[in-house]
Amino acid sequence: VSKGPGNTKVTKSSAVPPGPPVYLDLVYIPNHSNSKNVDVEFFKRVRSSYYVVSGNDSAAEEPSRAVLDSLLEGKAQWDSNMQVTLIPTHDSEVMREWYQETHEKQQDLNIMVLASSSTVVMQDESFPACKIEL
To answer: Which GO terms describe its biological process (predicted)?
Structure first.
């Protein structure tokens, strides 16, 4: 099929082009988990045991509910039901609502959301932390 000038095909671009999946141990979801950069195709292709979800800015929609829902939709298309752990860096309202509203689907898909209750104290500074064994 040839196309002349003016006959351009417009398609929705994806942050991750279609192709075979890539398997990783730990993935930091880019751009504070903003839906402009992460979609269902990202989670279909970028398969990880652990995903770090950052973002604590509800005005900027970070983390994005659309990104969290994309994880569920993308993981549902994997050919295995390996366990996935979601590690939020902040306790946000979006994360709490998503967790409660989709808890049953998370269990079906073998997705665990890690709630960090540990605190690391270094000199005069303390911060939440979690331990990950790879």
So the answer is: axonogenesis; dendrite development; microtubule cytoskeleton organization; regulation of microtubule depolymerization
**How far apart, in whole angstroms, are the C-alpha atoms of residue 7 and residue 80?**
41
Bond before 17 cis per omega within 30 degrees: no
**Which pair of structure tokens corresponds to residue 87?**
């590690």
Does position 134 have pLDDT exceeding 80, yes or no? no
pLDDT tens digits for 1-34? 445 555 544 444 556 667 799 999 999 987 655 5
Instruction: Give domain status of residue 36, yes or no.
Output: yes
| Strands (E) located in the chain | 22-28, 46-53, 84-88, 111-113, 118-122, 125-129
Question: Based on the structure, what is the number of domains in the chain?
Answer: 1
Contacts of 25 (CB under 8 A, 6+ apart): 48, 49, 50, 134
What is the extent of the structural domain holding 62? 22-118
- Is the Cβ–Cβ distance between 98 and 65 less than 8 Å? yes
